[in-house]
Design brief:
Chain A: One of its GO terms (cellular component) is plasma membrane. The complex is a heterodimer of chains A (270) and B (269). With 270 residues, chain A is an all-alpha fold. Chain A contains 13 helices and no strands. The two termini of chain A are 18 Å apart. Chain B contains 13 helices and no strands. Chain B is an all-alpha fold and 269 residues long. Classes of the chains: A mainly alpha (270), B mainly alpha (269). Chains A and B meet through helix 1, helix 3, helix 4, helix 5 and helix 6 of A and helix 1, helix 3, helix 4, helix 5 and helix 8 of B.
């Protein structure tokens, strides 16, 4: 069998692709230590000024706060709406289930720029009626993010429900449990890991969201990606390199830890 | 029955109000703003500047798709069929970039390719070039950045297809004396062709509505459809034309997705 493992050529080509995948992540590291104000490599003296500016400049802190607020609120809305929808479909199995699911997955498959335009148009209209859920307001960004991330919550929760044994719900039903009791007492506790997973995924997606955010914000509500965008577009600010290094470290740490745990479990299991 | 309907309807109402209705509004704009009729569509499909953007988008997206799917095929091969330790390392190389913000990745490419970036500095230090080679603000940078973003998305359908390959077929071909190369090209590749097709359509759909990476790495020099829509909204307000363009884009993507679904439907049957 070992004859059919990938050979030297495949391994070499893969190594090139892997290098290509990691290259930009490595390239930000030296840039983040430059002592100049523009994108350059540190020649001779390394400086931490761009890391310091991340912590000293109150605008980065404000953006961090609004990213966390938007992420938590949008994920909460998305998970509540999605779990109600999925449980409803699961219990009722309506005739139009396929069509309805297809409809709620639409924001996930439509080109992002079309969704952005649609949401910008919608929030512009709403701005004429109120100033909470409106263009460039926190409420408006939460609404836009909820629309964009709710399909992912639906997918994760649908998967969780598909693994749930229907007989548990049938038992509760036959013993006279009302629909609220079945939902809150039986179904929700049994899919709690799916709900937590959906919440995490939604938060991550909202945290990284830039396509729609660019269209629905300008100066008042500035999430972290939006502030990065401003620093990239006007003149490339090395503070973004510092921020990217920090984010890359966090992501790498989480993924390596997760992989290590899996690897050990697989070793033990095998 | 009533309480369960109460569960399903909130999300449908929410998306109906905040997604479907505004999209219908956009469609209405595309036929009415500024003049009633099909003038906006006419501009989208006949104006030479717009057509050149559409043509550039299709051309670059095809290049990006071919590059991403080929790179993804090679690395997925190792991820699915390599030895355990190799598999772990490949997985890290795929998953770490996948979870990192698109902005950080675009910035990384700027740091790599710009005039004062890593690559130019190295080449200068080694004495290979005298002045910096322009590698950003052009189509090359856009292709590199977009391919880098899309490789992980091509990996997932390919991995599914490769995991579904029946090991015994490969062993049989091997046992009957086929060379390694022949087992790969005449047995393994045809058996994963559906995954390649799926990955190809998926990556193409993703790339065609892409805004962030082309805007940052193209630097306004190679505008793609999504950036053109952005310009029509925020720079030279032409809502009707932007709306018409969006509708055209939506129809194109819908058509490709329909093909994708039908393909997968056939395989499932």
């Amino acid at each position: 069998m070992s004859r059919l493992h990938p050979g030297a050529i495949a391994t070499l080509l893969s190594a090139i692709v892997a290098l290509f995948l990691l290259m930009p992540l490595i390239a930000v590291v030296p840039v983040s230590f430059t002592s100049r104000r523009y994108l350059s490599l540190p020649d001779g003296k390394w400086s931490l000024r761009h890391y310091a500016s991340l912590f000293e400049d109150p605008e980065w802190g404000a953006s961090l706060l609004s990213s966390i607020q938007v992420g938590l609120l949008a994920s909460l809305c998305a998970v509540i709406l999605a779990s109600a929808f999925c449980i409803g479909i699961w219990m009722l199995k309506p005739r139009m289930a396929g069509l309805m699911t297809g409809f709620v997955l639409l924001p996930m498959v439509a080109p992002p720029v079309v969704s952005s335009l649609t949401l910008y148009f919608f929030l512009n209209k709403l701005s004429q009626w109120n100033s909470i859920i409106a263009y460039d307001k926190l409420g408006g960004v939460v609404l836009a993010h909820t629309v964009m991330i709710v399909p992912y919550a639906v997918v994760v929760i649908m998967v969780a429900l598909s693994q749930l044994d229907r007989r548990i719900d049938l038992a509760a039903q036959s013993m006279g449990a009302s629909v609220p009791t079945r939902v809150f007492g039986v179904i929700l506790p049994n899919i709690r890991f799916g709900l937590i997973g959906a919440f995490f995924l939604c938060f991550l997606l909202s945290w990284d969201e830039i396509g729609v955010t660019l269209f629905v914000t300008s100066v008042e509500t500035v999430t972290l990606p939006r502030r990065m965008w401003m620093g990239l577009r006007d003149n490339v600010d090395p503070a973004i390199a510092a921020l990217s290094v920090l984010l890359i470290c966090v992501v790498t740490l989480i993924i390596v830890l997760r992989a290590a745990v899996h690897f050990r479990q697989a070793r033990k299991g095998g | 029955m009533r309480p369960t309907l109460f569960l399903i309807s909130p999300l449908l109402l929410f998306l109906g109000c905040s997604y479907l209705l505004p999209f219908l509004g956009i469609m209405q704009l595309s036929f009415t703003d500024p003049s009633p009729g099909l003038a906006q569509y006419q501009q989208v499909l006949s104006d030479p500047l717009t057509l050149s953007v559409i043509w550039r988008t299709v051309r670059l997206c095809l290049i990006v798709t071919v590059v991403s799917v080929s790179c993804a095929y090679v690395i997925t091969l190792l991820w699915v069929r390599g030895r355990p330790m190799v598999r772990l390392l490949t997985e890290l190389c795929i998953m770490i970039p996948f979870w990192i913000s698109v902005l950080s990745r675009a910035f990384g490419w700027l740091a790599m390719l710009s005039n004062r970036g890593l690559l130019n500095t190295w080449l200068k230090d080694m004495g290979l070039i005298d002045s910096a080679i322009q590698m950003t603000r052009n189509e090359f940078a856009v292709v590199v950045g977009m391919s880098h973003y899309l490789i992980p998305f091509a990996v997932f359908p390919l991995a599914t297809a490769m995991r579904n390959v029946d090991e015994r077929v490969l062993t049989a071909a091997d046992g009957m004396g086929a060379s390694r190369l022949r087992v790969f090209w005449q047995v393994f590749v045809p058996m994963t062709a559906s995954g390649v097709m799926g990955a190809f359509l998926l990556v193409f759909v993703f790339s065609i509505g892409f805004y962030v990476t082309p805007a940052l790495l193209g630097g306004g020099q190679s505008v793609l459809i999504a950036e053109l829509i952005y310009l029509w909204i925020f720079q030279i307000p032409q809502w009707g034309v932007a709306a018409a363009m969006s509708v055209v884009l939506m129809i194109a993507v819908g058509g490709i997705l329909y093909l994708l679904m039908r393909r997968y439907g056939e395989i499932a049957q």
